[in-house]
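Retro notes
What went well: the complex prediction finally ran end to end.
Inputs used:
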Amino acid sequence: MVDNMASPKQPAFALPDPKDPAAALPAVVALRAAADRLENAAVRHAVEQGWTWTAIAQTLGVTRQAVHKRHRKRLGDIGGTSGTPKSSSKETR
Amino acid sequence: MILRKIQGRKADMTTLSNTLTEAMAIAQRAGAANAGAEHLMMAALAMDDGTARQAFEAIDADPDGFAAAVEAALAAGLPDLEMPEPVEHEPVDGRSPVVVDLPLPTTRMTNVDATFESAIKATHYFHNLPEDGRRLCGAYFVAGIASIEHGVAARALSEMEIDAAGLISAAKSSAV
């Protein structure tokens, strides 16, 4: 039986060898598409669950402006319009 | 540069504008960060003039199969990866889907990738505006896109067992 503590983590799938760009580059494209789709779906869920745009941006490691630009219109106004938490007393809505 | 060339041809301007807008919308619905030649192809196939569809049909290819071929080609890049579904616009809490205001094309487009750019540049119509009053139609885009050797659109055509040269030829015939 394999001792999981001792053996290195195996990836769920193997990535192509970079020395084979004809295989490796399309793999990059597939990974980016998967990342884009996962991001779109996860951001929707985050907003529905009450995450602020700031929290989403910080978790993704991008600017708040970047998440707004990419997701705000797409998701309509189901999220808060400001970065402040819903429980903030400064919230005027 | 292309817009300046066709500025005198009002109908062509409208056609180009509509096609590019639709391609961006398709890319957005597919959850893509940038529009690629594959999205432009889908927009061309959706055009009312029907010439793009005709080009596919002329070589016994199914125009309605292109979208699925794009998905297959994309996933084939890493077959063991469980590719998530594209995230569609859907109504939230019963509200109607968000209509995204896409900018009209200017001479500089953002959120398009290199295959999209190459496909537009390769669209023969823009380089040799027909003297005989022929208008911009879907088939011209098909010919331009099919000439792009690499990328998802090219792999989608391969996936459909479409010979690019054959499609280009059929597109040129359809563009009347």
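What we learned: Residues 41 and 132 of chain B are 25 Å apart (CA to CA).
What to try next: split runs per interface for comparison.
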